[in-house]
Amino acid sequence: MKTSVPAQTKPRVGRVRCPTRERRRGALTIEALLSLFVLTIGVMAVANFTIVSLKLTALQTAVVAGARQAALANLTVPRADATFAVMQPICSAHGISDLSSKATLSFSTSGSGQLVVVCEIGVSDCGVPNWLASFGFSWTGRVFRVVGVSQT
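Request: output the structure for the sequence above.
Response:
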């Protein structure tokens, strides 16, 4: 009597196909593109804000130096051209050119013998790139208002 041994069946080796994965392939691409778009805007915003803060710091340094110069002149009416002459080299080093035609200076004195110099200049006049304007964030119409105080 001959007994037959059942044939050994090997388990199937290979990829198991998931029916939902086939349908999600396009959704993953769209999600990746949208997140890349948002990340790109974020990086551009950080870089733009860095440039704005560097320009503002340079302008603050220049206004303080100009206030010192105006206080050293010890004039009853400070001269804007002498103040601009001190401010221009500092601003030029940071890409803010032709300061005297773009900025306005105002001088006032306080009762404690302090000279206050206020400089106003448009952000776009400082050479700040407007990278995010196409996304609705624009520097147009924004103004830096920087105050420098010096003891007379």
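Residues 35 and 45 are 15 Å apart (CA to CA).
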